[in-house]
Design goal:
Strand order of the largest sheet: 1-2
Helix content: 55-70%
Largest sheet: 2 strands, antiparallel
Oligomer: single chain
Low-confidence stretches: 1-17
Radius of gyration: 26 Å
Strand content: under 5%
Structural class: mainly alpha
């Protein structure tokens, strides 16, 4: 009964306190009646050392580089492995044993997965580098920085094949980046998480 009253007191104190803090009772699981003076007001948002850090709500360039490269490599490897499985199944011959069929599937999926993972990982690396450079140069992070990064990534990735190929790939990269950012905004707005 005392614990229930204590929890009710904690809730009423919490509503009276500031919106940016929450009350923390280190003894809440021990069923000990503790006065409200021993509750701690902890911030609900991250604490920063400098005010400039608190104004920018984004990852650093190193975190961005690691995140985009890792996600791109993982996604490319999984997609490449899936394509490799179908390629391995397509290459079955009539006299193959089960062991040989499994070997074909594993070899094909491993080779295709590595190839796709490396290619898409490089695209993620270029995208993260260009996006971080654009954000540092323009000092803002919005939809247009992502579109410019996608445009630059596509153009650089296909630059060795000529100007026309680079221009087409840049346009496709810009459209893809814009579509991903717009889709993210739609999901944030309409999908309750």
């Amino acid at each position: 009964m005392a614990a229930a009253n204590n929890n009710n007191n904690n809730r009423s104190d919490h509503h009276d306190s500031d919106e940016n803090t929450r009350l923390y009772n280190p003894y809440q699981n021990f069923e000990v009646p503790i006065k409200s003076q021993y509750l701690y007001k902890l911030p609900t948002s991250p604490e920063y050392l400098f005010t400039e850090e608190s104004l920018k709500q984004r990852r650093s360039w190193g975190e961005n580089l690691t995140f985009y490269t890792g996600i791109a490599y993982l996604g490319g490897s999984v997609a490449g492995a899936a394509v490799g499985i179908f390629s391995g199944v397509k290459n079955f011959e009539s006299g193959d044993t089960t062991k040989l069929k499994i070997n074909r599937i594993l070899n094909s999926s491993g080779h295709t997965g590595r190839t796709w993972g490396n290619r898409v990982g490089i695209i993620g690396l270029m995208y993260a580098g260009i996006e971080s450079g654009v954000v540092a140069a323009m000092d803002r992070d919005d939809v247009w920085t992502s579109v410019v990064a996608g445009l630059g990534t596509g153009a650089v990735f296909r630059a060795a094949r000529g100007v026309r190929s680079a221009a087409v790939a840049g346009a496709l990269g810009g459209l893809a980046a814009g579509a991903v950012v717009a889709g993210k905004q739609v999901v944030k707005r309409y999908v309750p998480i």
